[in-house]
Amino acid sequence: MAGFLSDLVQYRKLLLMIMVLGIGGTHLSGFQMSVINYTSPYIKKFINATWMERYGSVLHQETLTLLWSFIVSIYCVGGMIGCLCSGYLTAKYGKKKCLLVNDVVLLVATLHTGFSRRAKSFEMILIGRFLEGIGAGINMNAHVQYAGEISPKKLRGFVNVTSSVFLALGKAVARILGLRDLLGTEDMWNVLLSFSGLLALIQLLFLPFFPESPPYLLLQKGDKAGCLKAMKQLWGEGNYHTEFDDMMKEKAVTKGTKIMNVLEVLKEPSVYPQLSTMLLLLLSLQFCGLSAITFYTSEIFQTANLQESIIPYVSLGVAISELVSIIFCDQFLWMRYCSVVLIFLFIIAYGIGPAGAIASVMNEIFTLSTRSSAFVIGGIVIWLGLTFTGMIFPFAVMLLGPFCFLIFIGVLIISAVLIYLFLPETKGKSTSEITEEFKTRQFKKKRHQTVEKNATEEKTFCTKL
């Protein structure tokens, strides 16, 4: 306990920076993903009313569902574009400057969603969600990398997990504010949508007081003095020779190697094992069904025949389950509530497993020269998965009803087997050590293939004799 309190005092500035990064980073993205659930009935009604006022006719249900799925998935399209830009921007300008400019973009986005009701334009919601998606694509990549780079070795696992904690916290905050007792009403839904602008403003005001990440200053800018100053500012007084030596080793290994762009990373064979591992983790994350629950919680519980009045509170339970990964329940009086319990348990398993681990693994398996572009590739996979789910899942619910989640089972089984077989342990290891382990595994595989080939040739030779 004394050691924990000592670390808390020593790393207080680091913890403050983690808070500032999280509020305007994955917390904001989690809020934007989940808040759309609570505004869905009011936005649909708003679209219908606007259409009636403009054209004098009511929208068909299929057209309304299509427009609604566009509003949900346009966020993901923007996320893909933002993700594509993030690698170049973070490498050229640094993560701190990118996040600050990104906050301005998010403020513009929330002005569009906030004033859409007054302007009687559902197109402004589309524009706002698109800009929010661009912002999310940039800040999710920048936040995760930034958090990983500012942490000392002994706190790296804890700091890396904070990005997932803030993502879950953002979802929980969205569901709390979305309750009918607060902002989840027909008169306040546009205010609820634009609440994320306040989070961006907080980061815009406070992030300038913190430094750029030490690895970026040393490895990318060659600023040794700036790196040491940033380490001292974030980590307090102490001996940080281990962290500094690790960075110097990485600098020596990557000497003369520039930050690689996406195409260069895709063409580099030595990074293929890490890329394959990352893609496997992200695909299992995206197609496990969690994205569908995040975007369409209300629709799922409506399909389970829950009362309309209690759906927001059940949805809040989903968010809390993801955040704290714990549930307590005594008994269930109606069978229809079994689906709610299963979804809670599903979220708990997600929170205990992939939600916290994947961000940490992605930070640890790539060197600085490939990390930004690898995160871009991973981000594209994430946003493609979200876009696919956002567009297709409403129609899957219409066709399959309660059985709509069966389509995710195969993905989970295959992913579990492959992760067990191919993912090395990263705990307590530096990036250089993890990279060497991937190289060793690759060498052993090639050596095994060479031995088999030689044995075949020898057998053939003996047969000929």
Outline:
The chain is mainly alpha-helical. Helix content is 78%, strand content 0%.
Mean of the pLDDT scores? 75
**How much strand?**
under 5%
Rg computed from alpha carbons, rounded to a whole number of angstroms: 24 Å
Characterize the largest beta sheet: strand count, sense, and whether it forms a barrel: none
SS element count, helices = 21
How helix-rich are the residues, as a percent range? Answer: over 70%
Spell out the helices and strands N to C: HHHHHHHHHHHHHHHHHHHHH
- Which residues sit in consecutive blocks of at least 5 with pLDDT less than 50? 325-336, 457-465
Q: What sort of overall outline do the alpha carbons produce when their principal axes are compared?
A: globular
Structural class estimated from helices and strands: mainly alpha
Q: End-to-end distance, in Å?
A: 75 Å
Number of DSSP strand runs: 0
Q: In words, what does this structure look like?
A:
With 465 residues, the protein is an all-alpha fold. It is built from 21 helices and no strands. It is globular, with a radius of gyration of 24 Å. The chain starts with a helix and ends with a helix. The model is unreliable at 325-336 and 457-465 (pLDDT under 50).
